[in-house]
Amino acid sequence: MSTRDKLKDLIDRRSVARLGGGEKRIEKQHSQGKMTARERIEVLLDEGSFEELDMFVMHRCVNFKMEQSKIPGDGVVTGHGTIDGRVVYVYAQDFTVFGGSLSETMADKICKVMDMAMKVGAPIIGINDSGGARIQEGVTSLGGYAEIFERNILASGVVPQISAIFGPCAGGAVYSPALTDFILMTEDSSYMFVTGPKVVKTVTGEDISVADLGGADVHASKSGVAHFKVEDEDEGLLLIRKLVSYLPQNNMEEAPLMETNDSIDRIADELNDIVPDNPNLPYNIKDVIFTIADEGEFLEVHRNYAKNIVVGYCRLGGMSVGIVANQPNYLAGVLDCDASRKAARFVQMCDAFNIPILTLVDVPGFLPGSGQEYAGIIIHGAKLMFAYGEATVPKVTVTLRKSYGGAHDVMSCKQLRGDFNYAWPSAEIAVMGAKGAIEVLESKNIAKISNEEKKAEYISKRVTDYEEAFANPYQAASYGYIDDVIEPRNTRFRVIRAFQTLQTKKLSNPPKKHSNIPL
Questions:
Q1: Which pTM value belongs to this model?
Q2: In CATH, which of 3.20.20.100, 1.10.580.10, 3.90.226.10, 3.40.50.620 is domain 269-432+471-504?
Q3: Strand pairing category for 319-326 and 309-316
Q4: How far apart, in whole angstroms, are the C-alpha atoms of residue 484 and residue 453?
């Protein structure tokens, strides 16, 4: 065979490999509103940057006449490219080839790019669209999953890992995404569950649909498995590009510093009036976030889950910053099991990748009740406290209004190594609210008053006295627990200045194999 013939043979082989399962299966994929694996990669990465690896790999299975059906690439497209000029490694399962089912060789391909990402210190992005383990291969496919899981575990906290679920993801396949830092799902075409509706029906008798068992709505709002829910794959892929822009390449680097025309000393007079005079009235904490963030941009994580706390990324003075904020607009911003767990995971993510944390506090306490106690609110609340206390990144806290009881401690207080702790004049830092405190402190005196009108008058007077003493930030400031009381309109300037000062911060935890966070 001449050199020209060999080149033609190479080109022909590449053409066959790029077709995956063939035209008919590609058409079927498109008819379901789904892209092919290579189309997804083209949208995700910078134009012309993708370098594919292992295009000609084929499975080695000879069971059930599998040797008669071999397709180059074996159901997954792997390689590396760039997002905004920064290197990332990517794998995208190809549903047109054996339903994207995982074989031994597919696992080998995925593990190879994960190993390379670890060597060079670059993010790993996995696009999942798979029918699960390739049954014909039996235990070798299960072993392949475990090989991937082990790499997910070792890469955790070393390089960012992002999982996009753009189709089925069931059984053992769900655990790789679950081990990564972020999961996003599409509204109509993706689902995740350990056991499907048929098995559920057989074992428990429950009759449930695929969407109700493991659809995007379920995991974005109820289980908290999915960090993002998107309408379609285009939105999801562009969201990944946006998310990557806030993250460093690895745990040894800082997140990229972006240029901004938004002045550090921009005054926001509207913040002076955002907290209602009535302490029982709500306001939207996102209005505060949008006001202080560069260009008013904020990428919210877990938007539909545990809405009583808000987490996400913004930029302040060009710096990537993680925000954790109580949401008075939902359940009064109270901390419950889900909110504590959501925030704890986010704080750990930020700390692992050197992203400073801004905490905006307006929390009346932990949600009371047997339901929360039975669900382990003690442990879940401890997770958030642990995450803040262990974090060594720069931490700035601003108390806007209520900061009561144990919830005050949990929300990045000074004693959990908060670097700068500010408060607005509207801040109330105390063991509990005024009325509840008086009912405890004055219970005997109150009981002695038989006349209801005089009792109410007595309680009102004591509540007023308590509010004057404690419903302000100055007592905490007198102990140094609050570093300064600031004008709300100057919050952006003070917070950015604080983070700029902390850029050279050095803090380390005691030597240990690893912590034992309360799980």
A1: 0.94
A2: 3.90.226.10
A3: antiparallel
A4: 41
- DSSP class of residue 193 equals E
Exposure of 141 in the CB half-sphere (CA atoms within 13 A): 20
CA–CA distance, 369 with 261 (Å, rounded to integer):
48
The pLDDT of residue 63 is above 90 = no
Residue from 220, 339, 382, 407 carrying the catalytic annotation: 407
SS3 157: coil
Neighbouring C-beta atoms of residue 196, cutoff 10 Å: 17
Rounded to an integer, what distance in angstroms lies between the CA atom of residue 204 and that of residue 220?
Answer: 24
CA distance 193 to 170: 5
| Active-site residue, from 157, 172, 196, 224 | 172
Taking 80 as the threshold, does the pLDDT of residue 470 lie above it?
Answer: no
Which candidate in 157, 224, 376, 406 is catalytic?
406
**Which is nearest to 82 in space by CA: 231, 256, 302, 251?**
256
Q: Could you tell me what percent of the chain has a pLDDT over 90?
A: 75
- Selected catalytic residue, list 100, 126, 132, 171: 171
**3-245 carries CATH number 3.90.226.10:** yes
To the query of whether residue 406 is one of the catalytic residues in this protein, the response is yes
Q: Does 172 participate in catalysis according to the annotation?
A: yes
Q: What is the pLDDT of residues 207-251, one digit of tens each?
A: 999 999 999 999 999 999 999 999 999 999 999 999 999 999 999
Would you tell me how many other CB atoms lie within 10 Å of the CB of residue 85?
8
Amino acid in position 240: I
- Write down the domain spans for the chain: 3-245, 269-432+471-504, 434-470
Question: Rounded CA gap, 273 and 479, in Å?
Answer: 27
**pLDDT tier, 65 (very low <50, low <70, confident <90, very high otherwise):** low
